[in-house]
């Protein structure tokens, strides 16, 4: 019988030989890479030059930050003690003191700083829209900034950028808010309770100035909120005192009026109402970004890997 296999070992060896023929030969890969070394070097060199050009073209960004601590009176300690002592009687009068004397005003202040309303008011109050969205570069020699002529005319102080509707030449507060959130950061350390406020900008002096303004404005805004609320509460409590004859409830109401008076007094005498400055903002001497060395290294590595991939793909397609 001519179709039978005389040696059983040949039958086991045949499929193994077929399987190994599809395996990748490392020597072959290295020989292909070596053969395409000129193309690999050329592509890698192009990417390296491009990465260097990009790193040199990107402007320096400076970061200024301030370290803040919550003010002691920002936690509503007086109302907390009052709630523990007269909470039941206050509830009879329809007044809710809360378990902790109200929400944590420090956390509230952080959320207010990140809100659209506060950001819009901050930009309009200090007239920083051109410095936010039209700065081209900053000169170290004379500490002056130049604007992008395609966006803003510094001579006439008019916006000249060309955009499609519904956008207008002058950026809206929605655009300004998006741009501001990219350079502004406020973080809170859960363990220490300290808050860090930072601004990134092409000008280190502008970054420092904006941080100072932010700290001043948030203290002023939160102070005004509490004073307005305290005055309204005082008016309401005085009306309630006139309408009740129960001695215990009148005692609670007088205590509440006293707490509102304390709130107004602390607000009037303290500039750092919510946040106390632990470490003030400074004009940074060193840039925060870009990391030019890292950009060059990553660009070169990317070019080398892409070049090797192209050489291998071209070889296997031809094969």
TrEMBL record:
Subcellular location: Cell membrane
Residue ranges of domain Polysaccharide chain length determinant N-terminal in the record: 22-125
Transmembrane segments: 32-57, 293-317
Keywords, alphabetical: Cell membrane, Membrane, Transmembrane, Transmembrane helix
Keyword Cell membrane included in the entry's annotation: yes
Domain (Tyrosine-protein kinase G-rich) ranges: 276-315
Membrane topology: Multi-pass membrane protein
Listed InterPro entries: Bact_polysacc_biosynth/exp (IPR050445), GNVR (IPR032807), LPS_length_determ_N (IPR003856)
Protein name, UniProt field: LPS O-antigen length regulator
Taxonomy of the source species: Bacteria, Pseudomonadati, Pseudomonadota, Gammaproteobacteria, Alteromonadales
